[in-house]
């Protein structure tokens, strides 16, 4: 796919460090966990879909949240009984916030700092890899976004345990068709998680895309 998104501060580490520094202050002062990227409904749709997958054992399935931010997706899964949960983010401040929230909720969730666009990233193997907005942020990087997306997808491919492992992605910048085309060399679409639609000019579209992929 030749189309590129215009670079934005949302694609920079400095932006997220500054944002999560503020959210840490708000959390310490008011107990506010901060913004849930895309809104809580987008997160809940993925959680509900996962709960319906009988082949995924909550106790043994290893789940990795890429660009975990404040970690609330993993908190939601932990509250549903998932036991093997890991979150990574390239923002140390995001990880600091996520760890604080998990500790205060007495939840055993592992968090670490990792840049998923670096070729040496080695985080192990997982049954479920989740991305809500991280591929979008990589796509908005002002410098070499196309190369960074390629490195990111190579990392994701390496993180999936086998061909039955799931890569779940939610995006507000790319349509499902664009994701399928971009991922074609490494992943095949397994399922579409329905999201709210709108109709404009006789065409139906979605504000947010959620899709599930498996590696080839």
Automatic annotation (TrEMBL):
The keyword Mitochondrion does not apply. It comes from the Eukaryota. It holds the Pfam family Methyltransf_31. Residues 59-192 form the Methyltransferase domain. The gene is Dper\GL26704. One of its GO terms (cellular component) is cytoplasm. S-adenosyl-L-methionine-dependent protein-lysine N-methyltransferase that methylates elongation factor 1-alpha. It is found in: Cytoplasm. The lineage of its organism: Eukaryota, Metazoa, Ecdysozoa, Arthropoda, Hexapoda. This is Protein-lysine N-methyltransferase Dper_GL26704. Keywords: Cytoplasm, Methyltransferase, S-adenosyl-L-methionine, Transferase. The keyword Cytoplasm applies. It comes from Drosophila persimilis (Fruit fly). Belongs to the class I-like SAM-binding methyltransferase superfamily. EFM4 family.
């Amino acid at each position: 796919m030749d189309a590129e998104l215009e670079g934005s501060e949302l694609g920079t580490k400095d932006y997220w460090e500054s944002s999560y520094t503020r959210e840490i202050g708000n959390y310490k002062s008011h107990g506010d966990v901060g913004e849930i990227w895309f809104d809580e409904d987008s997160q809940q749709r993925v959680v509900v879909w996962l709960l319906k997958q009988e082949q995924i054992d909550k106790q043994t399935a290893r789940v990795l949240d890429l660009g975990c931010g404040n970690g609330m997706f993993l908190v939601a899964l932990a509250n549903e009984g998932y036991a093997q949960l890991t979150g990574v983010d390239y923002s140390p401040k995001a990880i600091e916030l996520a760890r604080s929230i998990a500790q205060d909720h007495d939840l055993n969730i592992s968090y670490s700092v990792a840049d998923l666009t670096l070729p040496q990233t080695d985080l192990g193997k997982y049954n479920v890899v989740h991305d809500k907005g991280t591929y979008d942020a990589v796509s908005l990087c002002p410098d070499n976004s196309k190369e960074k997306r390629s490195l990111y997808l190579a990392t994701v491919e390496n993180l999936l345990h086998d061909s039955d492992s799931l890569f779940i992605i939610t995006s507000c910048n790319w349509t499902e068709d664009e994701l399928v085309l971009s991922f074609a060399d490494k992943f095949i679409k397994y399922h579409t998680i329905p999201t709210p639609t709108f109709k404009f000019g006789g065409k139906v579209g979605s504000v947010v895309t959620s899709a599930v992929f498996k590696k080839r």
